[in-house]
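Here is the promised in-class demo. Please do not try to memorize the tokens; focus on the logic of going from shape to residues.
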């Protein structure tokens, strides 16, 4: 089992500034009052791993009828199977009960509908400084990228053939998943 995260020793703790997060922490107080997921062991109870985009329109658990505790979720811009996503999948498959992996990019995704130059220019306009050094990975052909990403999981030497791997495009305007791979 993965090691538990240990308490940070007091001498390394930074003073917590009282700004900017009050609403979130207050909401957490309410959330924790009737918290029902204590004592879970961190496995994916439904045997599912999802790789999807960071997009705020995606509710990865609810869109496939799952709840906290059911699935491992890895998110990044575009929902791509990056080396770190593969690392998560390998850990999920071997240590955390993952038996199915679904890769879920989505419609109207910023990294699939802009060029790298356009996104970088927009970042630079916001930041007011050079951003040429910052990698921004865009997707030119979403279906081709999804097929490639699914193949990357299926062909990984540490992902056995018994693991089911699929790819679906999520429509952010209808909430529907369209199986593509
Ligand atoms: Zn996206």
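The designed amino acids, position by position:
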């Amino acid at each position: 089992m993965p090691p538990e995260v240990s308490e940070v020793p007091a001498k390394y703790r930074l003073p917590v500034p009282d700004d900017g997060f009050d609403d979130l922490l207050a909401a957490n107080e309410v959330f924790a009052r009737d918290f029902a997921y204590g004592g879970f062991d961190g496995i994916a109870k439904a045997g599912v791993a999802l790789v999807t985009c960071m997009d705020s329109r995606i509710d990865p658990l609810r869109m496939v009828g799952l709840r906290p505790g059911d699935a491992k979720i890895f998110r990044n811009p575009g929902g791509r199977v990056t080396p770190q996503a593969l690392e998560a999948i390998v850990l999920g498959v071997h240590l955390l009960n993952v038996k199915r992996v679904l890769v879920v990019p989505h419609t109207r995704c910023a990294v699939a509908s802009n060029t790298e130059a356009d996104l970088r220019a927009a970042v630079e306009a916001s930041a007011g400084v050079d951003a040429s050094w910052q990698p921004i990975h865009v997707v030119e052909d979403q279906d081709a990228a999804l097929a490639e990403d699914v193949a990357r999981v299926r062909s990984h030497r540490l992902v056995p053939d018994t693991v089911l791997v699929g790819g679906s495009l999520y429509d952010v305007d209808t909430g529907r998943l369209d199986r593509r791979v």
